[in-house]
Request: fold
Amino acid sequence: MAARIKPLVAGNWKMNGLTAARKEVVALAMKLDGKKKPACEILLCPPATLIAAAREVARGSKIAIGGQDCHAKASGAHTGDISAEMLKDAGATYVIVGHSERRADHNETDAIVKAKAEAAHRAGLTAIVCVGETEAERDAGKTLTIIKSQLKGSLPDAATAKMTVVAYEPVWAIGTGRTPTADDVAKVHGAIRKALETRFGSEGAKMRILYGGSVKPSNAVELMAVPNVNGALVGGASLRAGDFWGIISTYC
Ligand code: PGA
Reply:
């Protein structure tokens, strides 16, 4: 039997959070303090402006801090961009790449996402590589084809289980309150696992596959019970420590 994969529960704050939001990190750290050995890893990805502050208040806690995007290059004339090295320097250990909002708003292709994941690895960050189909693609029965091609194009060839996490986020489920059925999630995560094993062998068997899209305390138990779901990528419900804790406590 395959070794148990330690789940990862990651919060993506997106473009939300001013300095005052540090109190949510403090509240989360306090809740975690009461848990001796959490059975999962906990990650918060605040906006880049809060990474250093979040790292500071989370110091000594079991909360890791991550970025939401990075540039493929380490430095240079790229106004407004942030490199993986800069995220690492600010205290991040993870970075999300290829989120569907970045793919849509910034025309990020699979090749760009792959270059960003490689940059994350170069800087020593674990890359959370997002994939997911749109509603139209789903309705056309193309979900698995789309996911497989995004995985093929977005994952670096040298990806390892330690440095790479895949997040399956159906675009139509993000921020909508809608989620796929447990059966649908099982089908997609099963296909992702197969693709990872075929390409990366034993590393692919150990790689974490997160589900994301309208995860809430009320559906977290059902989603976590699905085979090959090794954690969650949580948007809206990660903004308040209380809601996020409601999800974390079902996984840990
Ligand atoms: P949501 O977002 O939980 O608000 O649906 C998830 C995500 O986009 O990562």
The domain at 96-242 is CATH 3.20.20.70 (TIM Barrel).
